[in-house]
């Protein structure tokens, strides 16, 4: 058995399934080269054009090889730990729920900013990737963990409650800059 086969054999079923689905979607992107903007999360299109499919497709499509690579490595690590704690059926439900929840929250925040202060940018902003669901999974995994603190990249230690935020801080920093 090769090292890759050994690694894949340790990944629980629901985590392996969602990783496979995202990878197959990315392979479709590479081979068919569909216009990515047709599958991204655009709150304006979901609300006013009733393009509800974007709630799901925006989580499965990715912007680049680096994007899907990082997301699938994170999914493998976090998803495997969480699925071993809660089981395959609950993990599948959690992932499905996470896709809907993270997309709905994004749409709601964009809409709220638009109607309250007229900030229209987020309503037309294209968003893609599995990162929101990964964040949700990391929050669940760290809240179920018996450990009170976690090491962040071996550099410093934070409480388990702050761990998902510490993992996201480099990504948020790049987004703001």
Q: What would you say this structure looks like, in words?
A:
The chain is 71% helix and 5% strand. By secondary structure, the chain is mainly alpha-helical. It folds into two domains: 3-145, Up-down Bundle (Rhomboid-like fold); 146-177, no CATH class. Strands 1-2 form a two-stranded antiparallel sheet. The longest helix is centred in the middle third of the chain and has 30 residues, at 88-117. The chain is globular and about 50 Å long.
Q: How many DSSP-defined strands?
A: 2
Largest sheet geometry:
2 strands, antiparallel
Q: Any low-confidence stretches, pLDDT <50, length ≥5? A: 172-177
Q: What is CATH's topology name of the largest domain?
A: Rhomboid-like fold
Distance between the termini: 45 Å
Please tag this protein with its features:
two-stranded antiparallel ribbon; disordered C terminus; 177 residues; globular; Rhomboid-like fold
What is the structure about, briefly put?
71% of the residues lie in helices and 5% in strands.
Secondary structure: elements and pairs:
Layout: H1 3-10, H2 13-32, H3 43-48, H4 54-60, H5 65-86, H6 88-117, H7 121-124, H8 131-144, E1 149-152, E2 156-159, H9 163-176
Antiparallel strand pairs: 1-2
């Amino acid at each position: 058995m090769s090292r890759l086969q050994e690694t894949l054999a340790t990944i629980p079923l629901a985590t392996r399934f969602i990783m496979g689905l995202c990878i197959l979607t990315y392979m479709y992107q590479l081979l068919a080269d569909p216009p990515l903007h047709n599958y991204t999360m655009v709150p304006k299109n979901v609300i006013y054009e009733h393009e509800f499919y974007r709630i799901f497709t925006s989580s499965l499509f990715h912007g680049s090889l680096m994007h899907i690579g990082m997301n699938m490595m994170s999914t493998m690590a976090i998803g495997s730990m969480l699925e071993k704690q809660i089981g395959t059926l609950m993990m599948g439900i959690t992932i499905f729920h996470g896709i809907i929840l993270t997309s709905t929250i994004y749409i709601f925040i964009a809409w709220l900013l638009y109607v309250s202060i007229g900030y229209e940018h987020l309503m037309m902003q294209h968003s893609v990737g599995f990162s929101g669901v990964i964040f949700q999974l990391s929050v669940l995994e760290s809240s179920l963990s018996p450990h009170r603190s976690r090491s962040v990249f071996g550099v410093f230690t934070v409480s388990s409650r702050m761990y998902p935020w510490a993992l996201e801080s480099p990504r948020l920093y790049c987004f703001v800059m």
